[in-house]
Amino acid sequence: MKVSVIIPILDEERALPVTLACLERAIDAFRDTEVIAVDGGSRDASRAILAARPYVRVLDAPRGRATQMNAGAAVATGDVLLFLHADTSLPEQSLQAIAGAAAAPAFVYGGFHHRFSGDDWRLRAISALHNLRCRITATFYGDQAMFVRRTAFADAGGFPPRLVEDIAISEILRGRAAPAFLPLTVVTSSRKFEQMGIWTSFARVLAILLCLRFGRKPPATFFADIR
Description:
Elements: E1 3-9, H1 16-29, E2 33-39, H2 46-51, E3 56-60, H3 65-75, E4 80-83, E5 88-89, H4 94-102, E6 109-116, H5 121-137, E7 147-149, H6 150-155, H7 165-173, E8 180-188, H8 191-196, H9 198-213
Parallel strand pairs: 1-2, 1-4, 2-3, 6-8
Antiparallel strand pairs: 4-7, 5-8, 6-7
């Protein structure tokens, strides 16, 4: 079982060192791994950080998380594709756990439990709600480190080239099999929630979900970049 880790990046010099350090510990525990970073046009030190790590293959693609992840998937050789956000840290046994889940004949896709970094009770509560939503709806957010059998990803046509591509492909895949919702926890930097305001950020997430529920396109302003 080989796992391809695909990391979309855009000006992620602050987040990448922690993410890559955790990934390296996971690779030490599961060697059959390739890492592909797909840059959407970074203008900071992200490329230099990646260049210092020869195990990372770096590609360029037009800006857009779905476009970047699809570009990485197109050259990946693993049996399973792990889509890892640049500000999300994997636990040490994560790759082993993915390989174990993917060994099941009926496996199609999966993800991890999630929590934000930091000790703010509001962030912990939001993470708990995210995990509950995932269990009920069988749809993953991108920062839950979604992983997909490569053949199933290709059959689904990859990530739809639009916003909230993570939920969109989950809705396609859940029609084929129940997801593997691993008990291990990935940790996402809380910087974006904290900079925008925790409750404001949470309200934005709820608004996006309501837009999707009623067939409306979420406003592009809901997806403002914060670095």
